[in-house]
């Protein structure tokens, strides 16, 4: 039955249909209006989040877009990136948790992205968990909130923590009964600073 008159529907060509009562026609597969959406620019996301580059630099703005247009393009890119699929599942067995944070300025306010990666104790391949974004500087309380956001099934299998040694590392690890290991890069950097000339 037709949606307009609740009358019988007739085939009116290949794609169109017609109402037998009011003779109104419509297409079965209406085309979406407007231009096709642009492909997401994952390089843009990498430069802003990982490399901490500003959207207003000339290499970003070769098309001479406004700040609002660039922000909207970045937002669409982030939304499509998140819609690609769910984060990878953690490997089986005991796990090692590797954590680090990235900070950046947005709207004159400092934000910190908390990144968590898990890997099995007997394998080299790691799986990145869903990142968490909090305002202000990196701190132990927000790290505790980020770790609490990890599913209980994964959290209960973590036996060790690898980090850069931020303040509160020992408190965070002892509260979860984890072994702490300093990241080798940060450990060597600290030893280099402390050894003097």
Structure summary:
This protein has 197 residues and is an alpha+beta fold.
Overview features:
197 residues; alpha+beta; Nucleotidyltransferase, domain 5; 2 domains; six-stranded mixed β-sheet; three-stranded antiparallel β-sheet; 6 helices; 29% helix
Architecture overview:
This protein folds into two domains: 42-83, no CATH class; 95-194, Nucleotidyltransferase, domain 5 (2-Layer Sandwich). The chain is 29% helix and 26% strand. It has six helices and nine strands, in the order βββααββββααβαβα. Strands 4, 5, 6, 7, 8 and 9 form a six-stranded mixed beta sheet that branches. The protein has a three-stranded antiparallel beta sheet with strand order 1-2-3, with no helix packed on it. The mean pLDDT is 83.
Which structural class do you get from the secondary structure elements?
Answer: alpha+beta
Q: In angstroms, what separates the terminal alpha carbons? A: 87 Å
H/E element sequence: EEEHHEEEEHHEHEH
Using the CA coordinates, give the radius of gyration.
26 Å
Detail the poorly predicted runs. none
Topology:
Blueprint: E1 9-11, E2 16-19, E3 25-27, H1 42-49, H2 67-83, E4 95-106, E5 109-120, E6 126-128, E7 132-135, H3 140-148, H4 152-155, E8 158-163, H5 169-176, E9 179-182, H6 184-194
Parallel strand pairs: 4-8, 8-9
Antiparallel strand pairs: 1-2, 2-3, 4-5, 5-6, 5-7
């Amino acid at each position: 039955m037709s949606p307009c008159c609740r009358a019988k529907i007739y085939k009116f060509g290949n794609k169109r249909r017609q109402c037998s009562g009011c003779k109104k026609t419509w297409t079965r597969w209406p085309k979406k209006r407007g231009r096709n959406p642009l492909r997401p620019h994952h390089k843009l996301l990498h430069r802003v989040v990982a490399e901490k580059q500003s959207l207003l630099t000339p290499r970003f703005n070769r098309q001479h877009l406004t700040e609002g247009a660039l922000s909207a393009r970045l937002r669409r890119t982030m939304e499509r990136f998140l819609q690609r699929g769910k984060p990878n599942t953690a490997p089986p067995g005991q796990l090692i948790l590797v954590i680090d944070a990235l900070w950046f300025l947005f709207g004159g306010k400092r934000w910190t992205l908390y990144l968590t990666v898990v890997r099995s104790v007997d394998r080299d391949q790691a799986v990145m968990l869903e990142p968490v974004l909090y305002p202000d500087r990196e701190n132990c309380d927000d790290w505790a909130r980020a770790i609490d956001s990890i599913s209980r099934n994964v959290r209960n299998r973590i036996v060790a923590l690898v980090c850069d040694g931020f303040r509160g590392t020992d408190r965070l690890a002892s509260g979860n009964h984890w072994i702490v290991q300093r990241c080798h890069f940060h450990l060597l950097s600290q030893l280099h600073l402390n050894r003097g000339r």
